[in-house]
Design brief:
Layout (H helix, E strand, L loop, with lengths): L1 H9 L2 H19 L3 H8 L8 H4 L1 H15 L3 H26 L5 H29 L4 H28 L17 E2 L11 E5 L2 E8 L2 E6 L13 E3 L2 E3 L6 E3 L5 E3 L8 E6 L5 E5 L6
Antiparallel strand pairs: 1-10, 2-3, 3-4, 4-9, 5-6, 6-7, 7-8, 9-10
Helix pairs in contact: 2-7, 3-6, 5-6, 5-8, 6-7, 7-8
Bound molecules: FE2/S2 (inorganic) cluster.
The site of FE2/S2 (inorganic) cluster (FES) has 13 residues, from loops.
Length: 286
Amino acid sequence: MHRRVDRLIEAQERWAKPVGQWNQRWIAAAFAGSGPLKDLLNGVWLGHPVHPAVTDVPVGALTAGMLLDLTGQRRAADVVTATGVAAMVASAVTGAADAVDAHGRPQVQATVHASIMVGSLAAYLASLAVRAARPSSRTLAVSLALLGYAGVASGAYVGGELVYGSGNMVDRHAWRTGGARWRRLDVDEVPEGAPVQARAGQDTLVLYRTGDAIHALHDTCAHAGGPLSGGTVIDGCIECPWHGSRFRLSDGRVVRGPAVYDQPAYEVRAIDGGGLEARRLPEPLD
Ligand code: FES
């Protein structure tokens, strides 16, 4: 079944791609210059994307609201449904902060997901309006809420596919284990003031020299895989050239999103007789 649904989602590319790009332009303009706000919505402070955590609130509240509606507990159903609708708006804002940096297949999926959720929100808002204006029209209010709930369930499926199927906002180093083994680098010299790409076994690192110290991070950005060696160094951090995430060179700590996960960091030392070697540092505890 999931293959059929995937094909159905991908068939939406014709309209979803241009709509998604248009949405990304105005959302990016709205977030321009609001770095801390976008970091807050992405989840840099939490070390985890905020959106999937927030979405649990409307899904839970709207499920409860549906059950209360169907069992005739009107007052409780209205309050819980209104709570779910308010939480949908909060989910939309956090989702927009993530979707603005999605490209390719994830962007299409994000646009389909958001479009279904907006339709669902409209159905729920109509349901709330009917509840407030015509308390006797319970059948219409509940029908609209059920329609909205079908949208929430469908949109949640697409959102799940976006994360679990396409890996959007998943840590690019989730399966990369640490290790105390020193591995020889394929560069012998690191000039000061410019990022240098180097291989250490299977891994590609970015090296940056400051005086006698050579800082090293994994080259693949934790957010979506951008090459940090193509980035720029600002205030002791390297900035990814794709979406502008910044990681502290000394320990890989993320200091600006959209990445929410730290970057694997390495220590580098000279080898007797010439050359350099690196090994992964333990993750910072705080
Ligand atoms: S790939 Fe998105 S910020 Fe690096």
